[in-house]
Design a protein that fits this description.
The complex is a heterodimer of chains A (about 475) and B (about 375). Chain A is built from 18 helices and four strands. Chain A has about 475 residues and is mainly α. Chain A has one domain. In chain A, strands 1-2 form a two-stranded antiparallel sheet. In chain A, strands 3-4 form a two-stranded antiparallel ribbon. In chain A, a hairpin with a 4-residue loop joins strand 1 and strand 2. The longest helix of chain A is centred in the last third of the chain and has 39 residues. By secondary structure, chain B is mainly alpha-helical. Chain B has a single domain, classed as Formate dehydrogenase/DMSO reductase fold. Chain B has a two-stranded antiparallel sheet. In chain B, a hairpin with a 5-residue loop joins strand 1 and strand 2. The interface between A and B is large, with 69 and 70 residues.
Chain lengths: ~475, ~375
């Protein structure tokens, strides 16, 4: 039987690597687009203020992008290091979008970063603008591929269990792209990332404006951030997938979010488990070289529920002989573990969206229609910065927590996905990860602070940056 | 055009090897240059010059690692899984070096503080050494076989431990790998620099090159005595991927089987020696550009030597021989391999061109 401690530590390790990587994503996506817009305005209008805005924000972007690229590495390793059964069981499908991304957009963005960062003088204005746009497009298309993989975990279409290789195999790639939840997820996630990026730009600009109201660069950035933020907040609400349900797992999550009584879903889950046990039994017979076509046909008709039988492995190694009590336990475990958390988190997200909407509306109104931005609004922009960040992380948490106990909805439970590692090995790697990630995060924050301070001293002393 | 499963598996093996070659050339530069950072440059300005040679291209070069990992994951899922869970401890150590590298290269000059810079220099050079050595350790254990076992549900059990991976043969390959990347890195530094750095990297090149030639020959001799692997039963190049459907034997010198059946393959290890020797001769003549090309050929054929010797094995198991992973039974499904074939065939040369281009930019 699988040790609960190993499962917990493995989940923690995955959470650490994924969350740290995700911390650098909003700014990568949002700033890349904003930089492309600002540089376009600069190339078209030739106004120096946009040039200095590009220089300043590109430094912040660079720090963030380097850390995003580094932490991405750990994430590619993580599936194999920590989720070896997951990788075997669904790698055939799940890795496809990752491969496409690694060979196209991710590589393009990485290879263009050096020329972008060091090429301000070496390239003509138009060439450099092209680089900026290519990076902005590449990172955003990368997000599409990652979300394709992510949506597949939530709603695994286009795959089939193969009873010879004992894993899920690709049957139709187009179904991964036509996943009904993909479109909403894409809109919602990108918009959320832009929102966070806009709030960050707004806060940094506001801080600069507080210290030096004459900083034109910060004034323009404040204005642009308000526009981007307002658009993003509206898009986040439109793309809210919370009310969408493509499969039973999402229905259960939805029930938890709405605070419905979950117990009425149990009979349906039990039925799935009973079917799953039949499929599991048939699979064992098939593996004993029994080539009866009727057997295979029976198995194929039931194999959609095979994943439910795997839930039982937490309580018994002999799935076929599971007792009624074990089935009841497994059925209970198929409901999201902390329904109240999902319930209140969802309400917090809505509140955060409304808060952001108000902030960006005020910021936009003041910077477009009033002569100057009042001090209280600048302060508010700085103090409200944690709100969208928390909401963004909360939203991420909700999607991941919402499909528990599954790693792949109705296919593979999370507790089975892990590698056969010892507690000692896991403690070692979790500690290493936590230490190095914290060090990287601190280095990034320190450098960003230096960049902002340098900007401040450059504008107050009148030096050219 | 539709290909059968067997042809697809062969093609994907070729793509994997090509990807590994690309990775070795890209990663080798970063490893080689950072590894030699403190040996080739004594002053802060010189170190900055050394690093400037690779920094603009560094993120693109490092993306090869992500690309090759993704290729392994998608086309050879169980190989990826077994390799990453077996080499868990080794990879975590490498990851520390890899995570610190890009920040080191891009953030080093962000502060004037001397301590800040010296610490990053240390992190970069020890990181380079660590990665070079551990790549060799992994390679050595691939040839020796890894102590893993697959149960009937395809769950993976690693039966060895970290210290077992540091066996004498693997340590020898670690030394081979360090000298190879040092040679390659020194050739690059020699090509890019003048003055003190040029003189230092020239002498480093001779040291690394001679050491590499001796160590590579030693490793070759050891392989003739090392236990290799061979499939003894019927196997199914067109069958579904299940590694447990075959029998494997292990015996001294079996890794030379392919060369015995196809003697023309001896060209591959021979070219490693020849190109390394030629690179040193060209260095003597101050022909830095061609010397660098020669060391690149050394890297390419070193990777090929390992791949060809092991063919058709990808990851042999020395504890549970029949769990060994070969190209016939450890691939992704027919549908996945078909769907991804053309995108990867088209993308792979483009990645090479883009990587080369990122160095041109720097020259302007």
């Amino acid at each position: 039987m699988i040790s609960e401690t190993v499962v917990e530590l493995s989940r923690w390790q995955f959470a650490i690597t994924a969350l740290y990587h995700f911390l650098f994503i909003p700014l990568t996506l949002g700033l890349a687009v904003l930089l492309a817009v600002m540089e376009s305005i600069y190339v078209i209008s030739g106004k120096a203020v946009y040039q200095s805005a590009c220089r300043f924000w590109s430094q912040i972007f660079s720090v963030n992008f380097v850390l995003a690229a580094s932490t991405r590495l750990a994430l590619v390793f993580q599936f194999g290091l920590n989720g070896s059964y997951f990788s075997h069981y669904v790698g055939d499908v799940f890795a496809i979008p990752l491969l496409i991304e690694a060979f196209t957009t991710l590589f393009l963005a990485a290879v263009l970063f050096g020329p972008y960062r060091f090429g301000w003088e070496r390239f003509s204005k138009h060439q450099h603008l092209l680089l900026t746009w290519l990076i902005a497009l590449a990172v955003n298309i990368s997000a599409f591929w990652i979300l394709t993989a992510h949506s597949w975990m939530q709603n695994p279409l286009g795959a089939n269990f193969n009873d010879h290789s004992l894993r899920m195999e690709l049957s139709d790639f187009t179904q991964l792209l036509h996943n009904p939840i993909l479109c909403h997820k894409m809109l919602h996630t990108l918009a959320a990332c832009y929102l966070v990026a806009a709030a960050t730009i707004l806060a940094i600009s506001a801080w600069l404006l507080q210290k030096n109201p004459a900083d034109q660069m910060a004034g323009r950035s404040f204005k642009l951030a308000a526009v981007l933020g307002l658009t993003a907040t509206l898009a986040v609400s439109l793309g809210d997938s919370g009310t969408q349900a493509a499969n039973p797992v999402q229905l259960r999550k939805l029930a938890a979010m709405n605070g419905d009584d979950p117990s009425k879903l149990l009979p349906e889950i039990s039925a799935h488990i009973h079917n799953g046990i039949k499929a599991y039994a048939l699979l064992q017979t098939l593996r004993d070289e029994n080539k009866d076509p009727q057997l295979l046909a029976d198995f194929n008709s039931l194999k959609a529920d095979l994943g439910y039988a795997l839930l039982l492995q937490r309580w018994t190694e002999h799935v076929v002989d599971a007792s009624d009590q074990q089935i009841a336990l497994a059925a209970q475990s198929a409901l999201p573990p902390q329904p109240w958390l999902l319930h209140w988190l969802y309400r917090f997200l809505i509140a955060a969206a409304i808060g952001s909407l108000l902030l960006f509306t005020l910021a936009g109104w003041q910077s477009f229609f009033q002569k100057s931005i009042p001090a209280w609004l600048l302060k508010l922009s700085v103090y409200l910065l944690p709100l969208p960040w928390l909401a963004c992380i909360g939203g991420w948490f909700m999607t991941v927590a919402g499909i528990q106990p599954w790693a792949i909805a109705e296919i593979l439970p999370t507790f089975l996905s892990i590698s056969s590692l010892s507690v000692k090995e896991l403690l070692f790697s979790v500690t290493v990860y936590a230490l190095i990630y914290t060090a990287l995060l601190l280095a990034g924050l320190y450098l960003s602070r230096e960049i902002i301070r340098r900007q401040l001293s450059a504008t107050t002393t009148g030096a050219v940056l | 055009m539709s290909l059968d499963y067997e042809t697809l598996r062969l093609l994907w093996w070729a793509l994997l090897v090509l990807g590994m070659i690309g990775f070795a050339l890209a990663e080798g530069l970063l490893v080689g240059v950072t590894l030699l950072l403190k040996l080739s440059a004594k002053t802060d300005t010189d170190r900055q010059t050394v690093l400037n040679g690779i920094t603009p291209a560094a993120m693109g070069l490092q993306a090869w690692l992500i690309a090759i990992t993704a290729l392994l994951f998608a086309a050879w899922p169980i190989v990826y899984t077994v390799a990453f869970s077996s080499f868990q401890a080794v990879l975590i150590l490498m990851l520390v070096a890899w995570l610190g590298r890009l920040p080191g290269l891009y953030f080093r000059n962000a502060s004037e503080n001397a301590d800040w810079r010296q610490n990053w220099d240390k992190a970069l050079s020890y990181g380079g050494l660590l990665i070079a050595a551990l790549l060799g350790i992994i390679c050595g254990n691939l040839l020796k076989g890894v102590p893993f076992h697959l149960d009937s549900d395809m769950r993976i059990f690693f039966l060895g431990d970290f210290w077992g991976l540091l066996n004498p043969f693997a340590l020898l390959l670690a030394a081979v790998s360090v000298t190879l990347f040092a040679l390659y890195g020194a050739a690059f530094l020699q090509l890019k620099n003048s003055g003190d750095i040029y003189i230092a990297s020239r002498s480093l090149m001779f040291k690394a090159g001679l050491a590499f030639l001796v160590l590579f020959a030693l490793a070759g001799l050891w392989v003739t005595r090392l236990e290799g692997y061979h499939i003894t039963s019927e196997f199914f190049p067109n069958g579904d991927a299940n590694p447990l459907n075959k029998f494997v034997k292990r015996n001294d010198g079996l890794w030379l089987d392919n060369y015995e059946h196809q003697p023309s393959l001896w060209v591959i290890p021979a070219l490693v020696f020849i190109s390394a020797g030629v690179s040193l001769y060209l260095t003597k003549l101050h022909r830095s550009y061609f010397a660098f090309l020669a060391t690149s050929i050394t890297v390419v054929f070193s990777v090929l030597t390992v791949a060809i010797s092991m063919f058709p094995f990808l990851l042999p198991s020395n504890r549970s021989l029949n769990s060994s992973l070969t190209i016939w039974d450890a691939s992704a499904s027919f549908n996945s391999l078909t769907m991804l074939l053309w995108p990867v065939i088209i993308a792979l040369p483009l990645l090479a061109v883009l990587s080369r281009w990122s160095f041109w930019i720097e020259r302007k």
